[in-house]
């Protein structure tokens, strides 16, 4: 142990005169080394005491703390720490030249939404360069996961974006006009959108509406009769690069069979899965709003039942849902758990049921009384959401957010429609070219 300590201290030597002192010290060190090699000392506690009390003696020179070994001096402050004690590992290590701007750019900016970051580019040239870096976009996509709003769209209509906070979250207007054709939004995931073109070839696109970055996908091999039941799967990771998957559940013509086809951005082509789902009753798969969570895609296909496909294991199965789920409930993630949220009206009272666990049992019921609940003949509808503490509900034409922890109901939009398709969105800088 003492031998290692001396080797470590060699790197910190500050000779007081010339190289001859270094040579003398090395010779003295080698002699001491031989003496300790010949001893049978194995008690580390005794060795450490010998270093502290006998070999090394603290001293002050010109206001700086040194340790004296014979006639040589060693600076003990290898790190910046308040007590400058070489024998105590510092609680933290900080840069001596660090300023508040470095702290903000390194530790705060990656946790902000895209709209705020675009505005911060105008603060100075340095911030503009920093935020424009691909590595920063990667860090922001990994760090910022909060729900920013909803995309809403009627069939064959233009999409619109409903922000949860217009001052904080937003995208360039009008949405998705940077794509080569008008599109229908099919699925969203962590800042990316999967869209299908309205032209005759029904082209597939993956895009980021915040950065106007987009990519056209190759045509899939399986034929589908109507709109695709597809789910976009993208999980930002610490690894450099963007990898996403698109999973299609295809109802084969004249056969009670559903096959799965997966596109991988890494491989760049579609692959038909060996997993097949057989059903004996009519199901509704096309047009179903899919959901992705932790490597598994879900589609609600009938009352009390969701079709699940595991990307990693290449397996499909059935996830039970509440028997009363159809048709105004949504799958979501709450506190890392797959949950089902159902909103309905019972008399003059509006209720939200939250189901969870593997068997989807009722875990909580929330009682609400929106001011316009009695005006709606359509009752109450839960909309897709992402935040564990936030629920989105549609009451007539009004869209509300409900904070579960604070028990606060807030109006976010007054132009809702039961015929619209609503999809959650995260305001991310993720780039498809990483």
Automatic annotation (TrEMBL):
Residues 183-354 form the F-box protein At3g26010-like beta-propeller domain. PANTHER family: F-BOX DOMAIN-CONTAINING PROTEIN (PTHR35546:SF100), F-BOX PROTEIN INTERACTION DOMAIN PROTEIN-RELATED (PTHR35546). It holds the Pfam family b-prop_At3g26010-like. InterPro entries: At3g26010-like (IPR055290), Beta-prop_At3g26010-like (IPR056592), F-box-like_dom_sf (IPR036047). Coiled coil: none annotated. This is F-box protein At3g26010-like beta-propeller domain-containing protein.
């Amino acid at each position: 142990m003492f031998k290692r300590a001396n080797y470590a201290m060699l790197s910190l030597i500050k000779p007081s005169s010339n190289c001859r002192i270094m040579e003398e010290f090395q010779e003295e060190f080698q002699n001491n080394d031989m003496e300790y090699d010949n001893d049978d000392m194995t008690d580390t506690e005794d060795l450490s005491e010998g270093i502290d009390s006998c070999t090394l003696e603290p001293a002050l020179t010109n206001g700086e703390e040194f340790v004296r070994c014979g006639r040589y001096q060693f600076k003990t402050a290898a790190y910046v720490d308040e007590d400058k004690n070489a024998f105590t590992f510092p609680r933290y290590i900080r840069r001596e030249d660090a300023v508040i701007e470095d702290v903000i750019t390194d530790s705060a900016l990656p946790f902000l939404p895209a709209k705020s970051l675009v505005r911060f580019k105008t603060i100075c040239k340095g911030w503009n360069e920093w935020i424009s870096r691909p590595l920063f976009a990667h860090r922001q996509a990994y760090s910022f996961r909060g729900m920013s709003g909803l995309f809403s769209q009627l069939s064959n209509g233009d999409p619109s974006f409903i922000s949860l906070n217009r001052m904080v979250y937003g995208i360039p207007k009008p949405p998705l006009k940077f794509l080569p054709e008008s599109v229908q939004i099919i699925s969203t995931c962590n800042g990316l959108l999967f869209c299908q073109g309205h032209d005759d070839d029904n082209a597939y696109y993956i895009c980021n509406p915040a950065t106007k970055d987009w990519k056209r996908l190759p045509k899939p091999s399986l034929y589908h009769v109507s709109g695709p039941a597809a789910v976009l799967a993208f999980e930002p990771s610490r690894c450099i690069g963007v990898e996403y998957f698109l999973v299609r559940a295809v109802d084969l013509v004249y056969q009670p069979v559903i096959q799965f086809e997966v596109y991988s951005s890494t491989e760049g082509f579609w692959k038909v899965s060996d997993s097949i789902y057989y059903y004996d009753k009519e199901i509704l798969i096309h047009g179903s709003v899919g959901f992705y969570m932790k490597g598994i895609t879900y589609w609600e296909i009938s009352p009390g039942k969701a079709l699940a496909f595991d990307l990693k294991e290449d397996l499909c199965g059935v996830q039970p849902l509440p028997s009363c789920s159809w048709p105004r409930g949504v799958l979501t993630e709450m506190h890392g758990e797959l949950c089902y949220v159902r909103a309905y009206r019972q008399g003059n009272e509006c209720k939200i049921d939250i189901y969870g666990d593997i068997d989807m049992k009722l875990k909580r019921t929330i009682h609400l009384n929106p001011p316009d609940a009695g005006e709606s003949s359509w009752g109450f509808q839960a909309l897709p959401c992402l935040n564990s503490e936030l629920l989105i509900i549609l009451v007539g034409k009004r869209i509300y957010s409900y904070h579960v922890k604070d028990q606060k109901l807030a109006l976010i939009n007054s132009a809702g429609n039961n015929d619209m398709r609503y999809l959650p969105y995260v305001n991310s800088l993720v780039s498809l070219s990483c």
